[in-house]
Amino acid sequence: xxxxxxxxxxxxxxxxxxxxxxxxxxGHAFPIKEATVHDFHMAFKQNxxxxxxxxxxxxxxxxxxxxxxxxxxxxxxDAILQVDKADYERKAKLAGxxxxxxxxxxxxxxxxxxxxxxxxxxxxxxLLKSVAPKDxxxxxxxxxxxxxxxxxxxxxxxxxxxxxxxxxxxxxxxQGQ
Length: 177
Hints:
By secondary structure, the chain is an alpha+beta fold.
């Protein structure tokens, strides 16, 4: 499966839905709300945006909107470390540093296993504090492509297989909007 496949559409869509407004980053009027991955890479290339600025902006939006939307279960505590690597690679002009999802923050659905400090709970308290023994296949491909794993997005508990629960509800995040 190609790294540019439709597998990333739900993750990028969730990320875009969490972000509202057109905001200036570091004094430049860069329209983040409507920006595409290509737009981000062009802004990186023109030195008007860094992955760190992009991640910091998104973390601010999550902090502001998540109490209302309940769309993010967990933020990756290592996102800033991943950002530093992406920005370094771009500054050093390493091959692939302006391609695909390299340096682009993504949210994962909370049933995608990640071998890191984040939980993989499928929205359920039953799996809280569980440790994934290895990254899921899509996670390995995202890491290899240089994506910044921003966190885990909310989902219907157990992927909606639990009877008599409204869509978008999970024990961990509550009712998503």
